[in-house]
Amino acid sequence: MLKTFNEHEIETGKTMAIVAHITIIGCLVAIFMNIENKNRFSGFYIKQAFGIHVLFYILAYIVGGMNSWFVTGPFYLIFIMLWLYSFIGAVSGEIKVLPKIGVYFQKWFNKLSA
Predict the structure, then answer these.
(1) Is residue 114 in a domain?
(2) What's the whole-model pTM score?
(3) Residues ≥6 apart with Cβ < 8 Å to 26
(4) Is residue 113 part of a domain?
């Protein structure tokens, strides 16, 4: 499922891909910015970032009730690592699918962006 994009598409979509990683609000802004010009590179990272944000909020609700550092510490560490992995891919202009869950984000949020 490795997609290829041309250099122009990467350069024009890089800003929206980066904005999508800055909180859930930034992700929503990037979704609406990408409606007009339909950049596939930014669409790829919008789906990745949206998936990270949604999964974080769903699991944070569950983990928050456990009230244990043995659970919350690794939880935050895993999400920081996932976010950094995706963010570095967006900044560098490379296609980096998140391990294990990135393919599902691309399928589930297919209608979300280009």
Answers:
(1) no
(2) 0.85
(3) 19, 20
(4) no
